[in-house]
Design goal:
- The complex is a heterodimer of chains A (561) and B (159).
- Chain A is α+β, with helices and mostly antiparallel strands and 561 residues long.
- Chain A folds into four domains: 104 residues, Alpha-Beta Complex (Sulfite Reductase Hemoprotein, domain 2); 158 residues, Sulfite Reductase Hemoprotein, domain 1; 93 residues, Alpha-Beta Complex (Sulfite Reductase Hemoprotein, domain 2), CATH 3.90.480.20; 142 residues, 2-Layer Sandwich (Sulfite Reductase Hemoprotein, domain 1).
- In chain A, the strands form four sheets. In chain A, strands 16, 17, 18, 19, 20 and 21 form a six-stranded mixed sheet that branches. A five-stranded antiparallel sheet of chain A has the order 1-2-5-4-13. A five-stranded antiparallel sheet of chain A has the order 3-14-15-12-11.
- In chain A, helix 5 links the parallel strand 6 and strand 7.
- Chain B is α/β, with parallel strands linked by helices and 159 residues long.
- Helices cover 22% and strands 20% of the residues of chain B.
- In chain B, strand 6, helix 3 and strand 7 form a beta-alpha-beta unit.
- The termini of chain B are far apart.
- Classes of the chains: A alpha+beta (561), B alpha/beta (159).
- Chains A and B meet through helix 1, helix 2 and helix 6 of A and helix 3 and helix 4 of B.
């Protein structure tokens, strides 16, 4: 993984020092809360319902075991013993004290971590495919470009006060988009042109929130060396022309929609022609310098399959489920990627304790070259485990209560913090997630239903990404009472689609029943066990599901396909 | 009034002249963009050292005779409004403006370095904010990653 040099180290140390000064000026009353707010936000510090929340950046989700131990230490020392994995591959702490934040930043800096630009109206953490570097369907590892973009965006002087936040995601796998690039302000797909050269397909204007939109292609092929100059031009057009009068209309997607992709592209290209300088071109040696940090670990030569594993499989049913659901094929023979599910009944999705983090760090050292990846589905991945060691690893994970076999299944739920923590929320989302997790906590049922994603947001800001859940749940407020809208048909990947509302909003004691009815109807109508939930919804439309939930297809007031 | 210019505290030798008020001979007036548009040549003839005050929603292409102006003051109506940063870079990099580029309006210490990196060299801080301690903002970082108006070479060209 990337290692800081003297320059990177100095920037992060100086940042920690700068923020210490800003906090002390705030505490001394030299700056007002209004003036402090954008400063603390650019450093990941939010004020939530009960306390401050600090969001720590995990660039493209990648962590070393040393960093994981530091995150555990911070959870133990400055928080209530846990951290919360986010949908943007970061971790956040919900209970730090303002006076402690500068010390937390010093701790983070000691392991080459920071909280820079994890909130605020600036370029946020760059995210990537969580199987980057190991996926069989990958054309090229996207992480070197994420790191190049991280450095470019860190304290970029021109783009620190954008109309609104700005999110960039990169994938190098043409076949399956695990980074949801079509739902980012800028999405980058590594592609090959007719001449066999590698570059980027550039998408712009995707996003969730109040106005979910699928990103549009602004440039089909961008040579690698022009990456930064082109992105600067997109940002500049947005910075100059994006709306600033209404924060709900301020994202780049609104500008792209208002101008139309043709006119937006024309403005970007015009700026690009006027602004690109030879100095801004990415030299091959810089790409090579950064890429060298992501060279494969020293894999052993191993046979592609493992007979011993097959034998264990036959005896141990739980292990069998886990191998089937939580293991992902690796591009190197004899190795596998392992999804550690942190989703369990009674635990808010994404929460991990300090002891779990410490244990995961040890496991990563022993099984996976000391690396761990945070996924945007709020789980963890051990990217490089010997397939023959999977049974032993599973036993260790089970002992830590981390051996659940539900990755990608019904109970692998994504939720935002909801009304329990967030002052924007209209409704609680975690309790709904927990109720679903409890209701369907039967492995045979999970396997029968197969791959289906449930995503829950507590308000229309959509932090739980409900629009792209195969099943999406949105909390709303009806005269002071929490209600939930049920949406079907969303997908974040290459087959990107935005879910639609099935029918009238449901009360808190109806929503989980409704999910069960939808799943029951799916099981009844699917053509075969191979037809996934999302495919069945696309094939039959909403009527059968409306009938299952509301009694008759015509009784809905909003839905339709 | 005192301002920060080229990282030093100096007395302001310009005067903001609102529309409807006549600048007096010998002054270094900063006039509104609207007035400059109407009286470009007359103003330039009378005032060899002339400045203009530009609202945050204007682009460099909307500033007349910018190569003959001594000063361009860009308004930051709220410090969270970042348009002026792009305008400044365009003025410096694309239009070759070499006069004084001054940030006016809601200008606070913690923006100074970003503003300077985008090409501003003068700052009228929001009234009531101490200038002396604001100077410290310029020294907070010793390294930068990006190319900007202060250095056209990104760090990867210097590493």
């Amino acid at each position: 993984m990337y290692q800081y040099d003297e320059y990177d180290r100095r920037i992060i140390l100086e940042r920690a020092q700068q923020f210490r000064g800003q906090v002390s000026r705030r505490l001394a009353g030299e700056i007002t809360e209004d003036e402090f707010k954008p400063l603390r936000l650019q450093n990941g510090l939010y004020r939530q319902l009960h306390a401050y929340m600090l969001r720590v950046a995990i660039p493209y989700g990648l962590l070393s075991s040393r960093q994981v131990r530091k995150l555990a230490y911070i959870a133990r020392t400055y928080d209530k013993g846990y951290g919360h994995l986010t949908t943007r591959q970061n971790i956040q702490y919900n209970w730090p004290r303002l006076v402690d934040v500068p010390s937390i930043l010093d701790e983070l800096a000691s392991v080459e971590m920071h909280a820079v630009q994890t909130s605020g109206n600036c370029v946020r953490n760059i995210t990537a495919d969580h199987f980057a570097g190991i996926a069989r369907d990958e054309l090229e590892d996207p992480r070197p470009y994420c790191e190049i973009l991280r450095q470019w965006s860190t304290f970029h002087p021109e783009f620190a006060f954008l109309p609104r936040k700005f999110k960039i995601a990169v994938t190098g796998a043409p076949g399956e988009d695990r980074a949801a690039v079509r739902f980012h302000d800028i999405g980058l797909r590594i592609v090959e042109n007719a001449a066999g050269e590698r570059g980027f397909e550039v998408l712009v204007g995707g996003g969730l929130g109040r106005t979910p939109l699928i990103g549009e292609v602004i440039r089909e092929f961008l040579p690698k060396r022009l990456l930064l100059s082109y992105i600067e031009s997109i940002l500049r057009v947005y910075n100059l022309h994006g709306r600033r009068d209404n924060k709900f209309k301020a994202r780049i997607k609104i500008l792209v929609t208002a101008l139309g992709i043709e006119e937006f592209r024309r403005r970007v290209e015009e700026d690009w022609e006027a602004s690109r300088t030879p100095e801004l071109e990415l030299p091959d040696h810089e790409i090579a310098r950064v890429a060298a940090f992501f060279a494969p670990p020293p894999y052993e030569d191993l046979p592609p399959d493992d007979r011993a594993l097959g034998l264990t499989l036959g005896r141990d049913r739980e292990l069998g489920h886990w191998l089937r659901n939580n293991i992902v094929a690796h591009k190197v023979p004899g190795y596998s990627a392992v999804v550690i599910s942190v989703k369990k009944p009674a635990i808010p999705p994404g929460d991990v304790s300090d002891t779990q983090l410490d244990a995961i760090a040890d496991i990563a050292d022993r099984y996976s070259f000391g690396q761990v990846v945070v996924t945007h589905t709020q789980n963890l991945v051990l990217p490089d485990v010997k397939t023959s060691e999977l049974p032993r690893l599973h036993a260790e994970l089970c002992a830590l209560d981390l051996g659940d076999a539900n990755a990608g299944k019904l109970t692998d739920i994504i939720t935002c913090p909801g009304l329990d923590y967030c002052d924007l929320a209209n409704a609680r989302s975690i309790p709904i997630g927990l109720e679903i997790a409890e209701r369907f906590d039967r492995i045979d049922y999970l396997n029968d239903v197969g791959d289906v994603s449930i995503k829950i947001s507590g308000c229309i800001n959509a932090c739980g990404h409900h629009h792209v859940g195969n099943i999406g749940i949105l909390g709303i407020d009806k005269r002071g009472v929490e209600f939930y809208q049920l949406m079907l048909g969303g997908s974040p990947g290459n087959d990107a689609s935005i879910g639609k509302i099935l029918g009238r909003a449901l009360a808190q004691d109806e929503i989980v029943d409704a999910v069960e009815k939808v799943l029951g109807r799916y099981l009844a109508i699917r053509e075969s066990p191979d037809e996934r939930f999302i495919d069945a919804v696309r094939r039959v439309g909403f009527a059968p599901f409306q009938e299952a939930v509301y009694g008759s297809a015509g009784s809905s007031d909003a839905g339709g396909d | 009034m005192q301002i920060i210019r080229d990282r030093a505290i100096v007395d302001d030798d310009y005067v903001h002249v609102p529309d409807g008020v006549e600048p007096t001979p010998g002054q270094r007036p900063i006039v509104t963009l609207a007035r400059l548009g109407k009286e470009t040549e007359a103003l330039l003839a009378r005032f060899p050292v002339l400045g203009v005050r530009v609202p945050s929603d204007k682009l460099p292409s909307e500033i007349p005779a910018l190569d003959r102006l001594a000063l361009i003051a860009i308004e930051l109506p709220r410090f969270t409004d970042g348009r002026g940063y792009s305008v400044a870079r365009m003025l410096r990099d694309r239009h070759g403006f070499r006069g004084e580029l001054r940030a006016v309006g809601n200008v606070l210490r913690d923006q100074l370095r970003y503003l300077e990196r985008c090409g501003f060299n003068a700052f009228e801080l929001t009234p009531g904010k101490p200038l002396e301690s604001a100077l410290e903002a310029f020294g907070e970082f010793s390294v930068t990653y990006q190319a900007a108006a202060d250095d056209q070479r990104p760090l990867y060209r210097r590493r």
